Amino acid sequence: MTQALAERLAGVVGPDHVLVDPAVVEGYVRDWTGRWRGDCALVVRPADEGQTAAVLAEVAAAGLRVVVQGGNTGLVAGGVPEAGDVLLSTTRLTRIGPVNPVAGTVVAEAGVTLAALQDFLRPHGLELPVDLAARESCTVGGMAATNAGGIRVLQQGMMRSQVLSVDALTVDGRPLVRMHPLVKDNTGYSLSALLVGSEGTLGVITRLLLRVVARSASRAVVLLGLPGVQAAVDVLAEMRVRVPQLRAAELVDDACLRLVLAATGEPDPLPRRHPAHLVLELADGPAGLDRLLTALAGAGVTDDPLIDLAAADDAAGVRRLWGYRDRITESVSAFGVPHKFDLSVPAARTAEFVERCGALVREWPTRDPLSGRSPRPFFFGHLGDGNVHVNILDADPRDDALDDAVLTLAAQHDGSISAEHGIGRAKAHLLRLNRTGDEVAAMLAVKRALDPDGRLGRALLPFDGARRPG
Ligand code: FAD
Ligand code: MLT
Ligand code: ZN
Asked: Any idea where the FAD-binding PCMH-type domain is (predicted)?
């Protein structure tokens, strides 16, 4: 069956774009963290929407399951296929344009990376107002499918706020949604909005109409060293009121900073160690920095003997200070295979959650079988959105009970088990921690309406019993 299908698909996309060699396929069946590994029958890479539709029709005729993959930077194994699945890679859907400066929109195919889109928009003085450290590899289709957040949600919202409309296909290759090139269009249900955050389970997004904003030529950044997470929450509360134009407010705990220093060889940004750090950003280099420092002085931060501060308003300095936050994910992975969480908790409970979660991890009874060490927690994230990332090193990668304990603790703190990465396959069995039975039933009804045979994707809903990949 697979050989015959491979030949038919090669007739659609060309033989170079149907991959069956296990050594090549390996890169598509293992997730970015290295914790999850699946399998698949073949990888197919269509070059445009017509080919994508034809590929989906062929796979439907063969009765196989399809998993869509963009840059494979997802952190919850949503793009990890199982044996016998066809993996549809969007990486050749890379056309961009037109840009509409009056409407503030751009059209991009699903496989365009975030970095390529920003490069395209730069000469127009525009940018997509979503930024994340996976920018070189993650695709706009994957970002929409996961409703990615990143470091600018505070001011600009998540991908849901940027996706105005999409072109999408059903699992058997029929048109599902047609792009409407308008900023405002309330004609009935927004099927485009439904696909945002659907994690590749309802339709295959092939093209997007995205909201873009004026790109600020320069930025100002302040990195504060603080006595704890609660102090970071308190400073943020002041800064939100004093600086309404605040673009980012990111938390970095001491363990994360030490890890980044060890992985990158960068010097310590501050003269002393602090339990927590807050990275704040404003647009407009020197003027922005002036506003930030005035506001921090007004809030009593600059005079506080327990607080240290580093600041930059030039491009190189801004890049250097952001590096301490931006490079946490790669630094964590440099030291092992992490357990990763993207939780959100109410601001008032953030410090309490971090303390309890830290204790839970440090007292966890199992160890990493390879290193023999006990689990170590790292806390960072998008504090302005209440989004705390918990990463754990030196835990047994197969110890799913640790994941369940951390996620249950978040739910007990009135939090969400997924602030931004999605449910994927990693958390599908825990959906009920945050959603009622009625809500899950409604989600399943939508799924059945759009994909009655359950052949599209393996993420999100425990359609056939959630299974841990790999
Ligand atoms: P993939 O990993 O390929 O796929 C992700 C999911 O989307 C899968 O379920 C897949 O089936 C589905 N999918 C992909 N393309 C399509 C399509 N065209 N149509 C339908 N479904 C599709 N996330 C954040 O939200 N905020 C962050 O700050 C952030 N930082 C990150 C930093 C690093 C270093 C890394 C590695 C990841 C980070 N992420 C972050 C994770 C984030 O989910 C991804 O970076 C991005 O959104 C996924 O894009 P992708 O193209 O890699 O998708
Ligand atoms: C980030 O904000 O850097 C990523 O979403 C988090 C992660 O690597 O866990
Ligand atoms: Zn994040």
From this structure: 36-215
In the chain, % of residues over pLDDT 70: 98
Q: What distance in Å separates the CA atoms of residue 330 and residue 73, rounded to the nearest whole number?
A: 12
What is the Cα–Cα distance from 239 to 267, expressed in whole angstroms? 27
CATH number for region 2-89: 3.30.43.10
- Residue ranges around ligand 1 (CB below 6 Å): 32, 67-75, 78-79, 90, 110, 132-134, 138-139, 141-143, 145-146, 148-150, 199-200, 204-205, 329, 420-421, 457, 459
Strands 86-89 and 42-44: parallel
Q: Is 456 helix (H, G, I), strand (E, B) or coil?
A: strand
Torsion angle of the four alpha carbons 467, 468, 469, 470, in this order, in degrees rounded to the nearest 10: -130
pTM: 0.96
CA 327 distance to own-chain centroid? 15
Enumerate the domain spans of the chain.
Answer: 2-89, 96-214, 219-328, 336-426
Q: Which of 68, 191, 463 to mutate to test the pocket of ligand 1 (most atoms within 8 A of CB)?
A: 68
Tell me how crowded residue 460 is: count the other CB atoms within 10 A of its CB: 25
Contacts of 355-360 spanning 24+ positions with Cβ under 8 A: 355/229, 356/409, 356/413, 357/390, 357/406, 357/409, 357/410, 360/405, 360/406, 360/409
Domain 96-214 fold: 3.30.465
CA separation for the pair 96, 465 (Å, rounded): 39
The reply to whether 2-89 and 336-426 are identical in fold is: no
Which atom belonging to ligand 1 lies closest to the Cα atom of 148? 25
Cα separation, 232 vs 155, in Å, equals 18
The closest-lying atom of ligand 2 relative to the alpha carbon of residue 382 is: 2
Instruction: Give the integer Cα–Cα distance in Å for 12 and 17.
Output: 9
With pLDDT > 90 as the criterion, what percentage of the chain qualifies?
A: 96
Residue pair 116/136 in contact by the 8 Å Cβ criterion: no
Distance of CA 443 to the CA centre of its chain: 21
User: Ligand 2: which atom is nearest the Cα of residue 420?
Assistant: 5
The response to whether residue 146 sits with its C-beta less than 6 Å from ligand 2 reads no
In DSSP terms, 208 is beta-bridged to 108, 166
What class does CATH assign to 336-426?
A: alpha beta
Complex ipTM value: 0.99
For 372-376, which contacts have Cβ atoms below 8 Å and span 24 or more sequence positions? 375/339, 375/402, 376/255
CATH class of 219-328: alpha beta
The answer to whether residues 342 and 356 touch, using CB atoms and an 8 Å cutoff, is no
Q: What value does the mean pLDDT take over residues 49-69?
A: 98
Span 105-117, pLDDT tens digits:
999 999 999 999 9
